[in-house]
C-alpha cells in the first residue's frame, strides 16, 4: 500500500505539471492528501503499539531484579503521553482505544512495580513480600514481573509500599553505617619516638581520633533512634559497643602513658630503685608491658585493631591501678623525707625527686637551696678528697659565710642537710656572739663589715634596745629628764656618719648592708622622736613595750625577742639577707622551731668605742630593770 500511494502521488505531481504547462489551474488532489495522512497516522499507531507490546513482553518476561525500573517508569510515561495525543487525533479509532487501555492499565500497576523495583529492597524484604503473596521465597532464584502480577501483588499495594519505604530508610542508614566503618578502616594511631630512642614509642596527638570517635558515636545514636534501624540493629549495636570500648581503652591508655612517662624517669635512677625496691619491681613489669604494647601499635597502628585486642582494657585498668599504688608509695616516701627534713615541703615533688635520684651527688641540691633556705643560694664545697665538705654559705647578694665547723655531705640527703642547717645555726650563733663582743672594741666602720650582715643587724637591735632602756631608766629614776632626747641627737649624728660612709667606695654587698641599716635607723629616729613627744619615761610604758625589742640574755647566752607581754627566745639562727623592711610591724612569719629569721625591725645605737665589760653590765642592768616587779608592769 505504501508503494501504491507513492506511485499515485508521483502521478498526481505529473498532472500538476501538465496543468501548469497549459496554464490550467491545478487540481488539489485533496482525497489523496487525506489518504496519505491517514495512512501515516495509522502506521505510527501500529508501530508504537507494536513497540509497546514488545516492551511489555520484555518487561514481564525478564528477571525482575535485573530490570531498570526507573527507565521503565520513564518509558511508560512517554507512551502514556503519546497515546493521549493519538486519542485527540483519532478519538473513534478502536486501535487507539485499545492502545490507551493497555497503557493505562499498565500505568496503574506501575505504582506497585516502582515500589517493587526499589534498589534498596534486600532479601529480608523480599521474604516479607513473598510471605504476603503466599509464595515461597528462595534467595537467588529469579522471578519475573508477570509472575508478580500473577500472584496478585497489586492487591498488596499498601504492604509493598511500606516495605519499600522501610527498605529506603534502612538503605540510608546502611550507607551512613558504611561511611562510619570506612572511616575507621583508615584511622590509625600516631606514634612518636620517646626521648629520641628508635625503639621506644608513645602515642602522639589523639585529638583527631577523639573527634572522629565523638562524631561516630553521635551518628550511631542517630541510627539507633531511627524507626528503620530494625534490619541493621545488631550491627549498629556491635559497633556502638566497639566504639565504647575504644573510648574506655583510650582513656586508660592515655592515663597509663602519662603515669609511665612521669615514673619512667624516676625509677630509671638507681638510687630510687634501691630506696623503693618493691615499687621498682612493679614498675618494671608495667614498663615492659607498655613498651611492648607501643611497639606493636607502631607496627600496626590501626585504631580498631589495637583497641580490640582481647583483655587489653583489663590490662590497662590493672596497670593504672598499680601505677596509682606506686605513686601513692612514692608520695609516702617523699613525705617521710619531708618529715625528716621539713624544708623539703618548700619543694615540689619533681624537685625533691630530682635531688633524691642523685643522692651520690651533693651538688644536685644546689639549684633548690634557694627554696629551702630563704637567703642561701648555694654552698661552697671543698675540692679533691674534701669534695663532700661544705665550707661556706653563699647568698644571692654575694655574701659568703664560712662555717664555724664544716659539715660533710655524706649519707642520706636529708641527714646531711639537717647537719648543714645545724652548722648554719651554730655558725650564725657564733658569729652573732662574736659580733656582740666586738661592738665597742673594733672601730665602728670596721665593725660594720667584719661580720655577716644578719649578725650586724641583730646586734645593732640589741644595742639600740639597751641604750633606749638605759635612757628611759635614767628618766624614771630622776637622774636625767632629757636622757632620751640627748640619745636621739646622738643617734641622728650616727645616721649622718653612715650617710657619709655610703658615699665612699663600697662593694655592692656593703652598700646593701648600709642601705638596710640606714632605712632601719631612720625609722628608729622617728620612733625615739615620737616617744620624746609623748613624754615616755619608763621602760614599762606601752609606747615602748609595743616595740619589737631584742636582748642578749646572759643566763641563756642567747638572743631574746620581746613585744608587749610576748617573749620569744631566739635559740636558733639562720642566714638572712640584709633587706630593709618596715620595722613598725612584726615579721609576717613568726620564728618557728627550726629557725628565727633575724632581720632588723627596730632601731639600734652605734656607740663609739667603749669599755666592753662596762657595756655588757649596762645591757644586763637595763634588762633587769625592764622586768615587772611587785605585780606592776
In short:
The protein is mostly helical and 633 residues long. The protein has helices spanning 2-21, 30-61, 69-89, 94-116, 123-132, 145-150, 157-185, 207-225, 233-267, 270-275, 277-299, 303-307, 312-340, 349-356, 369-372, 413-438, 444-448, 453-476, 483-502, 508-533, 542-545, 612-626; strands at residues 191-193, 201-203, 378-381, 390-394, 400-402, 549-553, 558-563, 566-570.
Written account of the structure:
This protein has 633 residues and is mainly alpha-helical. It contains 22 helices and eight strands. The strands form three sheets. A three-stranded antiparallel β-sheet has the order 3-4-5, with helices on one face. α9 runs parallel beside α13, α16 crosses α18 and α18 packs across α22. The chain is elongated. The N and C termini lie far apart (152 Å).
Short descriptors:
22 helices, about 60% helix, three-stranded antiparallel sheet, mainly alpha, single chain, disordered C terminus, about 625 residues
Strand proportion, as a percent range, falls in 5-15%
Strand order of the largest sheet: 3-4-5
What is the arithmetic mean of pLDDT?
A: 82
Shape: elongated
Number of helices: 22
What's the β-strand tally? Answer: 8
* SS-derived structural category: mainly alpha
Q: List low-confidence stretches.
A: 581-616, 622-633
The helical percent reads 55-70%
What separation lies between the terminal Cα atoms? 152 Å
Report Rg. Answer: 54 Å
Major beta-sheet overview: 3 strands, antiparallel
Order of helices and strands: HHHHHHHEEHHHHHHHHEEEHHHHHHEEEH
Amino acid at each position: 500500500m505504501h508503494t501504491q500511494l507513492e506511485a499515485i502521488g508521483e502521478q498526481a505531481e505529473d498532472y500538476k505539471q501538465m496543468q501548469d504547462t497549459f496554464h490550467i489551474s491545478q487540481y488539489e488532489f485533496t482525497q489523496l492528501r487525506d489518504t496519505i495522512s491517514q495512512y501515516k497516522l495509522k502506521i505510527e499507531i501500529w508501530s508504537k503499539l507494536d513497540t509497546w507490546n514488545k516492551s511489555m513482553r520484555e518487561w514481564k518476561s525478564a528477571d525482575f531484579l535485573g530490570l531498570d525500573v526507573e527507565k521503565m517508569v520513564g518509558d511508560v510515561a512517554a507512551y502514556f503521553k503519546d497515546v493521549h495525543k493519538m486519542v485527540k487525533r483519532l478519538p473513534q479509532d478502536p486501535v487507539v482505544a485499545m492502545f490507551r487501555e493497555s497503557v493505562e492499565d499498565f500505568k496503574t500497576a506501575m505504582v506497585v512495580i516502582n515500589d517493587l523495583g526499589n534498589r534498596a529492597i534486600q532479601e529480608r524484604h523480599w521474604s516479607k513480600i513473598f510471605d504476603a503473596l503466599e509464595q515461597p521465597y528462595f534467595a537467588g532464584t529469579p522471578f519475573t514481573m508477570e509472575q508478580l502480577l500473577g500472584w496478585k501483588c497489586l492487591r498488596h499495594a499498601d504492604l509493598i509500599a511500606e516495605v519499600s519505604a522501610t527498605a529506603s530508610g534502612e538503605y540510608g542508614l546502611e550507607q551512613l553505617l558504611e561511611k562510619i566503618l570506612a572511616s575507621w578502616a583508615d584511622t590509625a594511631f600516631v606514634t612518636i619516638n620517646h626521648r629520641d630512642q628508635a625503639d621506644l614509642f608513645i602515642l602522639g596527638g589523639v585529638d583527631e581520633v577523639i573527634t572522629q570517635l565523638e562524631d561516630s558515636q553521635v551518628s550511631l545514636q542517630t541510627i539507633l533512634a531511627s524507626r528503620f534501624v530494625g534490619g541493621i540493629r545488631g550491627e549498629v549495636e556491635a559497633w556502638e559497643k566497639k566504639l565504647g570500648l575504644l573510648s574506655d581503652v583510650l582513656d586508660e591508655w592515655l592515663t597509663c602513658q602519662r603515669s609511665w612517662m612521669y615514673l619512667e624517669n624516676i625509677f630509671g635512677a638507681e638510687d630510687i630503685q634501691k630506696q623503693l625496691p618493691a615499687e621498682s619491681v612493679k614498675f618494671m613489669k608495667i614498663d615492659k608491658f607498655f613498651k611492648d604494647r607501643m611497639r606493636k601499635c607502631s607496627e600496626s597502628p590501626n585504631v580498631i585493631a589495637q583497641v580490640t585486642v582481647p583483655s587489653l582494657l583489663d590490662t590497662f585498668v590493672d596497670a593504672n591501678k598499680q601505677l596509682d599504688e606506686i605513686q601513692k608509695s612514692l608520695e609516702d616516701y617523699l613525705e617521710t623525707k619531708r618529715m625528716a627534713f621539713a624544708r623539703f615541703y618548700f619543694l615540689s615533688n619533681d624537685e625533691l625527686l630530682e635531688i633524691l635520684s642523685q643522692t651520690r651527688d651533693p651538688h644536685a641540691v644546689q639549684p633548690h637551696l634557694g627554696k629551702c633556705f630563704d637567703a642561701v643560694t648555694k654552698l661552697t664545697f671543698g675540692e679533691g678528697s674534701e669534695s663532700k665538705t661544705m665550707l661556706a654559705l653563699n647568698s644571692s647578694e654575694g655574701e659568703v659565710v664560712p662555717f664555724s665547723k664544716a659539715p660533710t655531705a655524706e649519707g642520706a640527703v636529708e641527714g646531711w642537710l639537717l647537719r648543714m642547717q645545724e652548722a648554719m645555726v651554730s655558725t650564725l650563733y657564733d658569729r652573732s656572739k662574736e659580733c656582740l663582743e666586738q661592738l665597742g672594741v673594733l672601730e665602728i666602720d670596721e665593725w660594720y663589715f667584719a661580720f655577716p650582715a644578719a649578725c650586724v643587724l641583730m646586734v645593732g637591735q640589741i644595742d639600740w634596745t639597751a641604750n633606749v632602756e638605759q635612757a628611759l631608766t635614767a628618766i624614771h629614776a630622776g637622774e636625767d629628764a632629757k636622757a632620751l632626747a640627748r640619745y636621739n641627737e646622738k643617734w641622728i649624728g650616727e645616721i649622718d656618719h653612715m650617710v657619709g660612709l655610703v658615699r665612699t667606695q663600697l662593694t655592692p654587698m656593703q652598700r646593701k648592708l648600709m642601705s638596710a641599716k640606714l632605712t632601719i635607723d631612720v625609722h628608729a629616729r622617728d620612733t625615739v622622736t615620737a616617744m620624746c613627744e609623748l613624754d615616755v619615761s619608763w621602760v614599762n610604758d606601752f609606747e615602748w613595750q609595743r616595740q619589737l625589742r631584742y636582748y642578749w640574755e646572759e643566763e641563756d647566752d642567747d638572743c631574746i625577742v620581746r613585744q608587749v607581754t610576748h617573749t620569744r627566745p631566739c635559740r636558733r639562727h639562720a642566714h638572712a639577707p640584709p633587706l630593709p623592711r618596715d620595722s613598725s610591724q612584726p615579721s609576717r612569719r613568726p620564728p618557728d622551731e627550726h629557725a628565727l629569721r633575724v632581720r632588723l625591725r627596730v632601731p639600734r645605737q652605734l656607740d663609739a668605742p667603749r669599755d666592753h665589760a662596762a657595756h655588757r653590765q649596762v645591757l644586763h642592768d637595763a634588762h633587769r630593770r625592764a622586768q615587772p616587779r611587785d605585780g606592776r608592769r
